Structure formats: C-alpha cells, structure tokens
Amino acid sequence: MHGISFTAIDFETANNFRASACSVGMTKVRAGKVVDQVSWLMKPLPGYEEFHPVNVGIHGITASRVHNMPTWQSIHGPMMDFIDGDALVGHNVSFEKSVIAKANEACRLPAATLDFHCTLALAKKHLELPHYTLSDVAGALDIPAFNHHDAGDDARASALIAIELASRNGITSLAALWPAAQKPAARVPGYYSAGYTRKLADLPQANIAANPYGPLYGQTMVFSGDLAALPRAEAQDSAAARGAAIANSTTRKVTMVVCAELDRGGRPSAKVRRAHELAAAGQDIQVIGEVQFLRLMAFK
C-alpha cells in the first residue's frame, strides 16, 4: 500500500447553494493507513445562512447549533493546513469541489488548486451493485458502520473505500487507482465544467418511482445557462431523480425551461426565446429562474 496517501473530505450544506457549507470532515491517509481525522461545524456565509428543512432532515444540523461557530473565512486556513497539498478524495467529489469553489468565490478568496478523486467513480469501475451511494458501497466492502451524513464519518468512510479497493486490486499508488484523473485533459469523474452540454445519450432518465405528486414529476425540462448553486449536470440529475425528463433543446415536448440568467437580469438565451414563442402559440410551457427551481427541488 506504499504511496496511497491523500485526504478524504466531505461537506454538509445548509441549503441547495454550494456556498452554504455548515460542516466539513476530513480524514488523512498515509501509506494506506488512516492517521488523522478532524471535523468542524461552521456558520454558513451571509446570504447563504438559511437552513432548509430538507437539508436539516438529512444531516440534523440547525442554525442554532452553528450560531457561534466560525464561518468559512476562519475555517479555510485550518482546512488548507490539514489538507497540506494532498489530493482530495470524496464520494461524488464534484460536490466537494463545487463547495470549495463557491465558498471561496463568495469570500473573494483565491481559487484553490487541488486534485480531486472520486470514490463513486472508483466503485462503479470495480464493483457491480444496484446502487452506489456511500452506504451501499461501504456495506459491499464491509466497511465498519458509520453515521451517514455526519461529515467526519462520511469522510472516513470515503477514505476506507479507497483503501479497500486499492488493497483488493493490488494497487499501490493514486496514479494507478485513478489513472484517468492523471491525464491533463481529463475531467474529474462525474464533474462537468461550466457551459458543458451533455450528449443526448448521457442525459439522466426520469425516475418513474419518484413522488408522482412532486412539482417536477412528469415535467420535460431544459436548462439554460449555468446555475450559481450547482453545476448544470447536477441540476439535471436532481430533477430527473424527482421524475422529470431532461432535454437539451426547447421543443414542443418541453414543459419547463430553467433559465439561470432570469434572476440576474441577463439576456434571454435561444432556448428561452423559443419557449416564449411556443407559449405564445398556446403550448403549456413555463420559464422559471434558479431560485424558483431550487424551491421546487425542495419537494421530495
């Protein structure tokens, strides 16, 4: 296991905005062994401090618990000191990557230069499972029971998953464990940069088992522009999980267009202009902004 060294990381957020971090957990691994672990609560940044009931129901952190805790500006330095230049590992690590980027942006801190590696992608490569949630993968690998959605426990579980999969496959370096991530042109598995448009075949399928009374169930949705709260691909995945069909262009089948620029006063895109044309012609189609979309996302 010589050479398998990294820091695993996990965030919890107060609401759908990535800059609303309210907890971070980190686990340090050296030569395939867990050697240190920290977790901190934090008060979300001004403008992002509302605790949404859905998020509280997931992680149990409330505004009162973090009222006297430090904010991102105070946590950032100790967090970077603990990371100490390590590659960062997480389960669906695009979430952690976007939390760091959005929180730094909100605080006007320099963008972090970090390498990210995803245990979700790693599990899909080496395991055949019906589902690949952190709990599912940990259970399949006989990782000790942990308190899911506790940032410290989740970071440790992600670390142990990477260690176990490396051990099972005789892998002794991060470069061998995540070979694609070492290529300069490669994206972090599961991460889509701003402006990236998925191919039609890569779009998520509507979850027919979702709550049929939810406001997104049965909608056919198009996303225009890049959301501030989360990458477009994650927004598409989340909407599909709630029963929406996802499309790339505004056609006569589309019922809802999410316009990232609507709340910012930006110029309407071709997708939005087409939606207005179809609405004027009698089609049942609506254009909503990011804030309204996030409110609809709160319904399970």
In short:
The protein has helices at residues 53-59, 63-66, 72-83, 94-107, 119-126, 134-140, 151-168, 174-177, 232-241, 270-280, 290-297, and strands at residues 6-13, 21-30, 33-41, 88-90, 116-118, 220-224, 245-247, 256-259, 286-289.
Molecular structure report:
The protein has 300 residues and is an alpha/beta fold. It folds into two domains: 6-182, Ribonuclease H-like superfamily/Ribonuclease H (Nucleotidyltransferase, domain 5), CATH 3.30.420.10; 200-297, BRCT domain (Rossmann fold), CATH 3.40.50. 34% of the residues lie in helices and 16% in strands. It contains eleven helices and nine strands. The chain has helices spanning 53-59, 63-66, 72-83, 94-107, 119-126, 134-140, 151-168, 174-177, 232-241, 270-280, 290-297, and strands at 6-13, 21-30, 33-41, 88-90, 116-118, 220-224, 245-247, 256-259, 286-289. Strand 4 (88-90), helix 4 (94-107) and strand 5 form a beta-alpha-beta unit. Helix 5 packs parallel to helix 7. The longest helix has 18 residues, at 151-168. Mean pLDDT is 89; it is low at 181-195.
